[in-house]
Amino acid sequence: MSVSFFGWEVTYDDNSPRVELGSSQEPKDRGVYTMYHGTSVANARLIIASGFQQSSGGMLGPGVYVSRDKKKAERYPLKNSPSDRVALELRVRVGRVKRIDKDNHPLQYTWNSQGYDTAWVPPNCGMKAVPSGLEEDCVFDPKRVQVVGIAKAPDTTILAELQQLVANSLGNLNGGAGGAASHGAAVDVCSLCKRKTRNGSPHITHQCWGCGQNICTLMIKHACPVKV
Question: Is 90 helix (H, G, I), strand (E, B) or coil?
Fold first, then answer.
């Protein structure tokens, strides 16, 4: 009996390579998610260079307001023209999450003092402060929110400029002694399996005993070209 190849194939049901949820799915405690934030061109430059600042207030109290619904972020700032709107792509460590799904919720403004890191407003929950019905999150600590890309910009010139600023910022974080990894916030992608790693901890890898290719134990599929 001969075997045509070494390898395997598996299917994940959690969409974990991107760790993205639909807007109606509740974020899990301690998860890391892709979210978005809408702002002006000038503020986008400041945020990329210096990070987010906690708002003084809002429908959920102080924090950084973000959404997993990119269309919502693209509408902000509401009073700005489309030529002065940027949607930032973010990597957000939500920590402990509290669902706020009604007006005058007892923890609407005090969730952080009760040990929660993020407040989550699900879509179409009927809150008067969210007339659009679109999903929203408030992250108390700005250090939990990192800009990783530009989801939308007014034109290609501004897009290219902001993308370069993001690349420079991420390069400084990864290369500097005070980078994200030292704060426990680094979330990189394994070059082999394309799934996320955390806190600078690489995945376990081995060499295929047939072709010698490096293999991550979390790879979805590996088909060895060597026949035996």
Answer: strand
The SS3 of residue 181 is helix
Q: What is the pLDDT of residue 23?
A: 59
Burial of 209 (0-12, 13-18, 19+ CB in 10 A): exposed
Any idea what DSSP says for residue 196?
E
pLDDT tens, position by position, 78-88: 999 999 999 99
Question: What is the three-class DSSP state of 179?
Answer: coil
Task: Judge whether 94 and 31 are in contact, CB under 8 Å.
Answer: yes
H/E segment holding residue 214: strand 214-216
Within 10 angstroms of residue 85's Cβ, the number of other Cβ atoms is 21
Residue 200's pLDDT is what?
Answer: 54
Q: Where are the alpha helices (DSSP H) in 176-226?
A: none
pLDDT in the model for residue 122: 93
Residue 97: burial class (beta carbons within 10 Å; 0-12, 13-18, 19+) = buried
Regions in the chain scoring below 70 on pLDDT: 1-25, 29, 174-188, 196-202, 217, 226-228
Rounded alpha-carbon distances, angstroms, from residue 23 to 3, 15, 63, 89, 120: 45, 14, 20, 15, 10
* pTM of structure: 0.67
Q: Residue 43: which of 53, 56, 58 has the closest Cα?
A: 53
